[in-house]
Amino acid sequence: MGDIEQDNSERADGENNKADKLFTLKKWNAVAMWSWDVECDTCAICRVQVMDACLRCQAESKKDFYEKQDCVVVWGECNHSFHYCCMSLWVKQNNRCPLCQQEWSIQRMGK
Amino acid sequence: MSLLKSQFIFENAWPCMRPIILKLLKQEPVTQAEWQDLFYSVHQVCLDEKGPPKLRDALKEDIMDFIKQAQQRVMAHQEEQALLKAYIAEWRKFFTQCNYLPTPFRQLEASLRGKTSTSMQKKNQPDESIVRKLMLDSWNQSIFNDIKQRLQDSAMRLVRTERNGEVFDSQLVIGVRESYVNLCSNTSDKLEIYRNNFEAAYIEATEAFYWVKAPEQLSLYGVEKYMRYAETKLKEEELRAQKYLEPNSASVQLLMERCVKVLVANFRTAILAECPRMIQQHQTEKLRLMLKLMDRVPEGVTPMLVDLEEHIATAGLDDMMAAVDIITQDSEKYVERLLDLFRRFSTLVKEAFDDDPRFLTARDKAYKLVVNDSSVFKLDLPVRQGAGGTSLIPPAPIIGTIASLGSGINSKPANNNNGQPESKCPELLANYCDMLLRKTPLSKKLTSDEIESKLRDVLLVLKYVQNKDVFMRYHKAHLTRRLILDTSADSEKEENMVEWLREVGMPADYVNKLARMFQDIKVSQDLNQQFKEQCRAAIADSINIKILNAGAWARGSERVTVSLPLQLEDYIPEVEEFYKKKHSGRKLQWYHHMSNGTITFSNQVGRFDVDVTTFQMAVLFAWNQRPLEKISYENLRLATELPDPELRRTLWSLCAFPKIKRQLIVADPPTHSPKDFSQATKFWVNQEFAIVKNGKLQKRGKINLVGRLQLSTERSKEEDNQSIVQLRILRVQEAIIKILKMRKKITNSQLQTELVDILKNMFLPSKKMIKEQIEWLIEHKYIRRHDNDINTFVYMA
Predict the structure, then answer these.
(1) What's residue B459's pLDDT?
(2) Which residue, among B47, B39, B143, has the nearest Cα to B86 in the 3D structure?
(3) How many angstroms separate the CA atoms of B484 and A96, rounded?
(4) pLDDT: is B555 or A51 the higher one?
(5) How far apart are CA B343 and CA B282, in angstroms?
(6) Are B587 and A111 in contact (CB under 8 A)?
(7) Minimal Cα–Cα distance from B607 to chain A, Å?
(8) In terms of Cα–Cα distance, which of B637, B603, B488, B532 is closest to A27?
C-alpha cells in the first residue's frame, strides 16, 4: 500500500496525498491466456490442436484428461513442434521430423 | 360245457342287468351289490363271442327308451322357460349318468373294439367311451335335434332379458351350451355344433341388441355418457360371455370383437370428435375412458395422438405469445413458463393417458415444436451469399476431431445459406442457468435443493432444444464470466452442472472444455499464490492474476489495444517474467477486455469503491491528472487508444449505467445512445456522484459498474453468430466423412438420417446445409457420386 502512495506522490504533484486523488487503484484482476509458442497450432502427427491434449491422451481418459496437464509440446531443432506424446511414439519408428525429414533432436520442451 | 352254456349267457344275464341299468339311467339308488353284479354280468356276457353286440343293442334300446320318456316329460311343457327348465333338468341327470353308466361296460367296449390286451386298453382310455358316445348320440338324435332351435331361442331370449336388467337362473343358458358342446360326436372338432349354432346365435343376438341400443344411447345422452355406457357394456358383455360361452375357445374373443365393432368402431368418428375439446378442458377422466375404448379399435388412438399434438403446439404457442412482452425480456419467466407448460402437458398425459408411451412421444414431438418455435423470438443467424470466407475470422477453437479431418477440410468451406431464424430458447435457457449459478437475487433467494431442481429442469427443456450448440456457446460464455469475475454462487454446483450436461449427452469435447476451465481456474489460483509469495508486497496486494489455457477459454484470437494506466502497465513485465520462470515454450496474451478491478473514487460527496473493467479504468484514470476538466471524446480516444466501438461502449457504461441514479461521468451534450457521441462530445467526472440507497445519499459504499463482462469486442460479437454457422458447417462435413468412412457407400436418404442422428445433440442440420456440404465434399474429392446412381455417395480415401 505504501508503495502506491509513493507512486501517487511521485506521479502527482507531490503534496497531494492519496485521499485527494480522484481515482486510486485498489485491486486489479488481470487476465491473460497462454498458448504454446508454436508456428503451427496443429500437431502434424495426431491432427489435434497442440493446445488440446493429443488424440491418444484424449482417448485414454476421456473423462479426466483435462486434469492431466502433462500432454505438453516439444520443439525440434528444426523448430517444428508436436505433442510430446505423439513425437515420442514417432521417433521409435523414424527418428526424423515428420515435416522436414531432418534428423530429430529436441530443442526444448514445453512446461 | 362252457360252450353250451355260453350260448345263453346274454339271455340269462340280461334280466338281471336290465333293472340295474334302468335304475342307473333314472338316477335311482343302486346298491353296491347290484353295482358289482353289473360288472360281473358284463364280464360274463363278454366271454361269449356273440354277447357284446347283443348287449350293446339291448343297452341302446333301453337308453332310447329312457330318452323317449325324458323327451315326453320335457315336451309336456309348452311354456318356453318351463320347457327350458325341464330340458336342463333332464339333461343334467342324463349327463351325469353318462359318466357313470359306461363304467361297468368297459369290458364290453374293449371286446367291441376287438382288443383285449391291457396295454391297448390303457392306450385307448382317452378315447371316448363307446357307451357314453352311444348315450350322447342317442340324446342328440332324438330329443336335442327336435327342440334345439327352441332351446337356443329361449336361451337367447333369457340372455336378452338379462341384458335388460332381469335376473334369471343362468344355469339354464349354461345348460343349453353344455348340451351343444357335449353332444358333438365329431371328435376332431368337438366344438363344431356349438360354434355353428350356439356361438353364432349368441353373437348375432348380442350384435343385434346393441345395434339398436347403441345409437339410441348416443343420441339420447351424448358422447360423454355414451362412452361410459359403451365401456360398462363392454365389461358386462365380457363377463357375460365368460359365463355363457364356452371357455377355452375363441368364443369370448370373437364376441368381444363384434361388441367393440358395434359399440365403439361404429361411432369412432363421433367419439373422436369430442377429443380435442376434452384435451383442451383437461377432462382426464373422460379422456382416459376414450383411450380405453379407442385402444380397442384399429387406428383408434392415432387421431387422439394428433389431437394431443395439435393441442400442445397451439396451447403452448398461444401461451407464449400471450406473454410475449414479459418472456422475451426475462429469461427466468420464459423458462419458468416453458417448464410450466411442460408440467401441464405431462400431467395431462399422465392423468388422461397413464403415461402411455405413444402419448409421451406425441407430447415430446409437440413440445419440441413449442421450444424451437421461432415466431416468439428469433435468433437470426447470418445469411451469406456468394463467395464465402473472404471476411471470415478463422473458425474459433476447433476441436481435435474436426482438425483431424485434415487441413483441407479445415480451411474455409464454400458458401452457406442457413439463414433460417432459430428459436432464442437456447440462449434464454443459458441465461437462466447463469442466473441460478451466479450470485444473483434469484440464486440467493433459493435453497441449494431448489437450485438443483431448477437446473435439472433446464436440462429437461434442453433435451427438446434442437440447436444445443447455441446453448453451449452461451453457457460457456456465462461460465467464463462467472469464473473470471469470481461470481459463482456455488462452485460445487457449477461442476455438478458440467457432469449433468455430460449425462444428458452433450458432446464430450464441449463438456471436457468446460471441465478444463474449472481445472484451469484452480491451477491459476495456485499460480497467483506463488506469484504473490515471490514478488514485491506492494504488487501482491493490488494484483490478482489469472493465466488461462487459450485452448479452453479463448474465443477467437482478437485482442484489443488499450493504453493501460501506468500503474497497471508496470505490473505486466513482472508477471511475464514470473511466468517465464515457471513455464517455457509458452506465450502470453493479455485479455484486457476480460480483466477488471476495483478502484477508489473520491469526490466532494465521499469515497466509493467502484468495481470496473480495465477499459473503464483506463478511461477514468485519464482524469487523474486533471480532475475537474472536461475532456473531449477525441482526447479520450488518444489517451486510451481504445478502438472507437470499445470506447463508445465504455463511455456509455460510465454515463448511462442502468439502474443508478447518479452517474459517474457526465456527457455534454447528453445522448440517447453510444452512437451519438461525437468527437467533440465533452465528458467530465460527476463531482456530485454518490450512491443512492432507499432515496438517501451514501457517503461511502461500493458499486459495481462492470455489468456484463464483455468477452469479445464489438466486431467479434457480430462474428459470433457467424462462427456458430461456421462450426456447424465443419460438424456437418466431419459427420458426413465419418459416416462414409464407415459405410464406404451410402444412399442420400440414409445419409441424411444418420447425419441427424450424429448431430442431434448439437443442432439440427438443415437439408440445405447438408446438400451444400455434400457438394463441397464432392468438389474437394472427399466423396463422389456413385457411377450408376447419383443419389448414392462413395467414400474416396
Answers:
(1) 92
(2) B143
(3) 43
(4) A51
(5) 13
(6) no
(7) 9
(8) B532
Q: Give the gap in angstroms from C-alpha A87 to the nearest C-alpha of chain B.
A: 16
Name, in order, each residue with C-beta under 8 angstroms of B29's C-beta and a sequence gap of 6 or more: B23
Cα–Cα distance between B147 and B74 in angstroms, integer? 10
Q: Is this complex scored with an ipTM above 0.85? A: no
Q: What is the pLDDT of residues B332-353, one digit of tens each?
A: 888 888 888 999 999 999 998 9
* Beta-bridge mates of residue B704: B611
The matching CATH number, chosen from 3.40.140.100, 1.20.1310.10, 3.40.630.30, 3.30.1490.110, for B2-143 is: 1.20.1310.10
Which of B510, B584, B687 to mutate to probe the A interface, most A CBs <10 Å? Answer: B584
Asked if the C-beta of A16 comes within 8 angstroms of chain B's C-beta atoms, the answer is no
For residue B452, CA distances in Å to B44, B330, B478 come to 94, 20, 18
CATH of domain B592-714: 3.30.230.130
Residue B548 has pLDDT above 80, yes or no: yes
| Chain A residues in contact with B591 (beta carbon < 8 A) | 31-33
Measured between alpha carbons, how far is B371 from B320 in angstroms, rounded to an integer?
10
Cα B8 from Cα B6, distance rounded (Å): 5
- Residues in B touching A34 (Cβ below 8 Å): 547-550, 579, 583, 586-589
Give the C-alpha separation, B359 to B348, whole Å: 10
Strand order in the sheet with B631-632: B631-632, B682-685, B665-668
**Residue to substitute from B600, B613, B664, interface A, most A β-carbons within 10 A:** B600
Q: Please write the tens of the pLDDT for every residue from B658-687.
A: 888 888 999 988 888 888 889 989 999 988
Pick the CATH number of B399-553 from 3.90.1150.10, 1.20.1310.10, 3.30.450.20, 1.20.1270.20: 1.20.1310.10
Select the residue from A25, A36, A80 to test the B interface by mutation, using most B Cβ atoms within 10 A: A25
CA distance B536 to B455: 44
Query: Cell 460527496 appears where?
Result: B605
The three cell numbers of residue A18 are 492519496
Q: Please, how many CA atoms are within 13 Å of residue B82, restricted to the half-sphere of its CB?
A: 6
Quote the minimal CA–CA distance from A11 to chain B in Å.
9
